[in-house]
Amino acid sequence: MRCMLRGMDMTTRAGFGRRAFLRGAGAAIALPALEAFGFPQAAARPRRLAVLYTPNGVNVPQWTVEGEGKDYVLSPTLRALEPLRGDFSVLSGLNQENATPGEDGGGDHSRAAATFLTSRRAYKTGGADIRAGVSFDQVAASAIGGQTRWPSLQLSTDGARSAGRCDSGYSCAYQYNLSWKTPTLPLPAEHNPRMVFERLFGAGPLGADASDDAARRELQKSVLDFVREDARALRGRLGARDREKLDQYFSAIREVEQRIARAETPQGAEVPAGPDGVPASFREHVRIMMDLTALAFRTDATRIVVFMLAHEGSNRAFPEIGVPEAHHQISHHQGNVEKLTKIAQIDRFYVDQLRYFIEVMKAAPDGEGTLLDESMVLYGSGISEGNKHWHNNLPLVLAGRGGGTLRPGRHVRFPDPTPLSNLFVALLQRLGVKADAFGDSTGAAGDL
């Protein structure tokens, strides 16, 4: 059923829920939950899941925290999170046994990524006969994804690769993908912020001509320009709380849109032009993707986002923080103090991006609380010690309150070894998915 109410398109369809859009040529602005649409502030809010992945392990001594429970001491690597320590927990003792070499020999980076969300051993092949397992985010997407415009979003800062040989005889599909819809079908991640933005706010799959998206951008207009009159009419019918929420939401959209536009316009001839929408700054690239994730959650466009900040085995350099060497190369430090120091610098860079995302989620209103209150944000890597390719005691942080089902602010130490899949069972249950087992789990992780 679709009806027009002075520019506001209220759409209801089976399995899609009630959603409100402001529409224009090449624009479909999904609106946040407003009281005027029958969403009271006290209503139960949907729970969201974001997974943030970093490659190549960490400097373990600099990552490791002291103490347990609420009285733990943040490590040097995690110190930037101190002002937010009531919003996250550090998890220790969780392992991915299926990522270890065994009879498969080398290829730990491929196994680390392929196993991280599937908890299944990847079949070693460089051909088309890839096989891992269904990832836990896709188990959730199958159960709850029909309630949103997009069942899930897969993001990265690298181009997608699903073929070729990358790591000791493993297909590149393993190293570049975290989400697996089936055991043989990885879901490629989008690395271009412009494409993500258009998926969220362009014509989309609801019927408008996608060529309008390009025409709008060619005119250098904002998506908000095309719904301005409808938005003004809508705003006049809203109460004070709804108006404030709408203004904050539109400001967030416009700010992200402007940053993407700046990335598409090189500021000097010495800066090589990349694909549309991809910033020259890695930090800015990561943060735009995080802002887009928050916008997707605010409009309930999706409730599940998996973001690979860099593919496993990444050789990205970090000259902006004084590390011109390739990340993967120096992760094989062999105890070299200078290399370990630089690894810790990279670790702190990534943790600072986590801090940024937590702050963005905490600042975004959602009902009586915030997006962070209703979300679960899992941050970590499929490798702990990069030089030795350890897959035990993985470096993990779990942020958010999961709609009141999580108790952040602690260091939770699980008996080592405990399968990481136990955590996935617990998170699936908190998303409303009936799950007693997943991968190699031995039960649901407790004390979260």
- What does the overall shape look like? globular
* CATH architecture term of the largest domain: 3-Layer(aba) Sandwich
Cα distance, first to last residue?
41 Å
What is the CATH class of the largest domain?
Alpha Beta
What is the secondary structure topology, with strand pairs?
Blueprint: E1 2-5, E2 8-13, E3 17-24, E4 27-30, E5 48-53, H1 60-63, E6 88-95, H2 108-116, H3 136-144, E7 153-156, E8 165-167, E9 170-171, H4 172-176, E10 180-182, E11 185-186, H5 193-201, H6 211-218, H7 228-235, H8 240-263, H9 282-298, E12 304-308, E13 317-318, E14 323-326, H10 327-331, H11 337-363, E15 365-366, E16 369-370, E17 375-380, E18 396-399, E19 411-419, H12 420-430
Parallel strand pairs: 5-12, 5-17, 6-19, 7-12
Antiparallel strand pairs: 1-2, 2-3, 3-4, 6-18, 8-9, 10-11, 13-14, 15-16, 17-18
Helix pairs in contact: 5-9, 8-9, 9-11
Keywords:
Alkaline Phosphatase, subunit A; alpha+beta; disordered N terminus; 448 residues; globular; 19 strands; 4-stranded antiparallel β-sheet; 12 helices
